[in-house]
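Exercise 7b. Backbone tokens:
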């Protein structure tokens, strides 16, 4: 994927989030060592063009809300529920 070094670091970190887990934009910013760059992280997350393969749907708002997803919030919710349900089936 083409992007800035910052965007690539965000996208790379998205791939480290375990299946069926969610983290906040603040936590994602901390993971890349840019704790004060929460909005920039959100912007980079939004520029992810491979939003199923690079799991940006696993990032949620600080209050637990579903925020921003280029495929629509209904799809983000569906993906999160699908991951959780399939994980529960494995247990």
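Sequence design result:
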């Amino acid at each position: 994927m083409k992007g800035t070094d910052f965007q690539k670091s965000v996208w790379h970190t998205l791939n480290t989030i375990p299946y069926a887990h969610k983290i906040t934009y603040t936590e994602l910013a901390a993971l890349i060592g840019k704790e004060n760059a929460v909005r920039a992280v959100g912007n980079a997350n939004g520029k992810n063009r491979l939003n199923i393969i690079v799991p940006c749907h696993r990032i949620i708002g600080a209050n637990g809300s579903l925020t921003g997803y280029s495929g629509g919030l209904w799809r983000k919710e569906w993906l999160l529920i699908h991951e959780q349900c399939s994980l529960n089936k494995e247990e």
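Instructor comment: Strands lie at 23-24, 59-60. The mean pLDDT is 92.
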